[in-house]
């Protein structure tokens, strides 16, 4: 199967969940989410005078084909998070998955369902063979999301990523293959 990077945003719908473009009406909720201590701790965000707007523009622009990023939305409640398949490597047919869920929506299964939906898109539409999911060892909630989304733990990467606090943190590596059973 050939890798086919997508250059225009493609929505993905699942029961009770929509992966879609960020919309202008999301800006206030997005700004609140980006200001959340836990999101800011683990996710480098955009700098500048209007970080929410910059975030939306970056995530909605699929023009280079190097990522597929979406707003995670509840069909009734609206914006609840973000999920991305990024660092798409067509030659290796692999990429990374990243996500966050806003504080008002945590603990309701959005993260795992969004990662499963994004992974299905990456394997099916893009044609990837493998996805990686990294998270700081100190972030056990992300470990639970990875496992619930069908990404088994593969090991610990020592001081592998410098987080917004400026320190290098150990990370857990989780991986999923296109041939793995979908949760």
Topology:
Blueprint: E1 12-14, E2 17-20, H1 27-34, H2 37-42, H3 51-60, E3 67-74, E4 78-89, E5 94-101, H4 110-126, E6 130-136, H5 140-148, E7 153-162, E8 168-177
Parallel strand pairs: 5-6
Antiparallel strand pairs: 1-2, 2-3, 3-4, 4-5, 6-8, 7-8
Helix pairs in contact: 1-3
Question: Could you walk me through the main structural features you see in this protein, from its secondary elements to its overall organization?
Answer:
This protein is α+β, with helices and mostly antiparallel strands and 183 residues long. It has one domain: Gcn5-related N-acetyltransferase (GNAT) (Aminopeptidase, 3-Layer(aba) Sandwich), CATH 3.40.630.30. It contains five helices and eight strands. Strands 1-2-3-4-5-6-8-7 form an eight-stranded mixed sheet, sandwiched between helices. Helix 4 links the parallel strand 5 and strand 6. The longest helix is centred in the middle third of the chain and has 17 residues. The chain is globular. The two termini are 22 Å apart. The mean pLDDT is 95.
Q: Which term fits the overall shape?
A: globular
The assigned CATH architecture is 3-Layer(aba) Sandwich
The SSE order reads EEHHHEEEHEHEE
* Strand order, largest beta sheet: 1-2-3-4-5-6-8-7
Task: Catalogue the unreliable spans.
Answer: none
> At the fourth CATH level, what is the homologous superfamily?
Gcn5-related N-acetyltransferase (GNAT)
**Count of alpha/pi helices:** 5
- The number of distinct structural domains comes to 1
Structural class: alpha+beta
Helix content estimate: 25-40%
CATH class: Alpha Beta
Sheet bearing the most strands, described?
8 strands, mixed
Q: What is the beta-strand fraction?
A: 25-35%
């Amino acid at each position: 199967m050939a890798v086919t990077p997508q250059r225009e945003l493609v929505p993905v719908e699942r029961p009770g969940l929509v992966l879609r473009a960020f919309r202008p009406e999301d800006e206030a909720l997005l700004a609140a989410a980006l200001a959340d201590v836990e999101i800011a701790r683990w996710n480098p965000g955009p700098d500048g005078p209007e970080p929410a707007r910059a975030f939306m523009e970056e995530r909605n622009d699929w023009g280079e084909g190097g990522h597929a990023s979406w707003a995670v939305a509840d069909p009734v409640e609206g914006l609840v998070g973000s999920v991305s398949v990024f660092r798409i490597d067509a030659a290796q047919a692999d990429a990374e998955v990243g996500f966050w869920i806003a504080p008002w929506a945590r603990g309701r299964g959005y993260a795992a369902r969004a990662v499963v939906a994004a992974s299905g898109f990456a394997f099916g539409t893009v044609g990837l063979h493998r996805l990686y999911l990294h998270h700081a060892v100190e972030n056990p909630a992300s470990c639970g999301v990875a496992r619930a989304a069908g990404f088994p733990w593969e090991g610990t990467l020592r001081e592998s990523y410098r987080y917004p606090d400026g320190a290098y943190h150990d990370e857990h590596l989780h991986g999923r293959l296109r041939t793995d059973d979908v949760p």
